[in-house]
Specification:
The complex is a heterodimer of chains A (about 110) and B (about 160). Chain A has about 110 residues and is mainly β. Chain A is about 0% helix and about 50% strand. In chain A, the strands form 2 sheets. A 5-stranded mixed beta sheet of chain A has the order 2-8-7-4-5, with no helix packed on it. Chain A has a 3-stranded antiparallel beta sheet with strand order 1-3-6, with no helix packed on it. Chain B is an alpha+beta fold and about 160 residues long. In chain B, the strands form 2 sheets. In chain B, strands 1, 3, 5, 6, 8 and 9 form a 6-stranded mixed beta sheet that branches. Chain B has a 3-stranded antiparallel beta sheet with strand order 2-4-7, with no helix packed on it. Classes of the chains: A mainly beta (about 110), B alpha+beta (about 160).
Chain lengths: ~110, ~160
């Protein structure tokens, strides 16, 4: 599996609002489509995305089949201190992916 | 120009009448689709209970004419100072005509700094998309956009 893409500024000023962009490769099969031979394709989606800043949850999203393939999520947070951002995606069929990014706050 | 045979004129009148009737039915159908389908209302009530939903504070940025329903860029932002005592708790997005009414549920806190989230969604038909936000004081605000979709998601074959 390819690694998720994360865009977090490497440096930020304390108290600055930063934008975080995330992109993960996933089919997000909604479970309503049929294959070319007419068989219903079972649902296979990412159901939850969580971002934690130094272990504290700062953003959580419940995803539904109406989210496009290769989910792209952009959100914001306040740069409080230098540390690690942990991104976790979980989904159907035991899907799980984790990625980290570090930030230096001055 | 030669004179029209009577039978041709009759046929033409019939076609004219039929097309006028069809136009009328189309207008009726358009007006009917404006009502929010029950499944979306049920999904909204599932999340927010009986809370009163006000209009405003929420901005739902989504193109009103979409060529491909498989990836529709969407940005939801909410007016809020995002302080420890006054912040946006959650944002939920709903649709009328996809197989399921839910699109995304977002949970924020004061550490978000700015209540603005973007993603890409699927739309199975031309329809209304509603974004609803709940504040830390419990008040609920919403915004809605009518979207026209030319190529629908979900139903297309693979």
């Amino acid at each position: 599996m390819t690694r998720p893409l994360i865009n977090v500024p490497a440096r930020a000023k304390r108290g600055q609002v930063i934008e975080i962009k995330t992109l993960i490769s996933h089919v997000m099969e909604p479970g309503f489509r049929h294959s070319s031979i007419g068989v219903l394709l079972p649902r296979d989606i990412i159901t939850e995305f969580v971002c934690a800043y130094d272990g504290e949850e700062i953003f959580r999203a419940d995803l539904f089949p109406a989210i496009s393939a290769n989910p792209f999520v952009t959100f914001h947070t306040v740069a409080t201190k230098s540390g690690t951002l942990t991104f976790t995606w979980t989904g159907d069929n035991g899907f799980s992916a984790t990625e980290q990014a570090s930030i230096t706050v001055e | 120009m030669k004179a029209e045979p009577a039978i041709d004129k009759g046929r033409r009148d019939l076609i004219k009448g039929a097309s006028a009737l069809a136009c009328g039915m189309l207008l009726l159908a358009v007006r009917k689709a404006d009502a929010t389908p029950a499944s979306m209302q049920a999904a909204i009530r599932d999340v927010f209970g009986n809370a009163e939903i006000g209009r405003g504070k929420v901005t739902l940025d989504i193109p009103s004419l979409v060529e491909n329903g498989n990836t529709v860029p969407m940005t939801v932002s909410v007016e809020s100072p995002m302080t420890a005592t006054d912040y946006v708790k959650s944002i939920h997005v709903f649709n009328e005509k996809n197989p399921q009414p839910n699109v995304i549920g977002i949970h924020l806190g004061p550490r978000a700094g700015k209540a603005s989230v973007s993603t890409r969604i699927r739309l199975a038909d031309s329809q209304k998309v509603v974004a609803i936000a709940q504040m830390s004081d419990g008040s609920v605000w919403s915004a809605q956009v009518d979207v026209i979709v030319t190529l629908a998601a979900c139903v297309e074959g693979l």
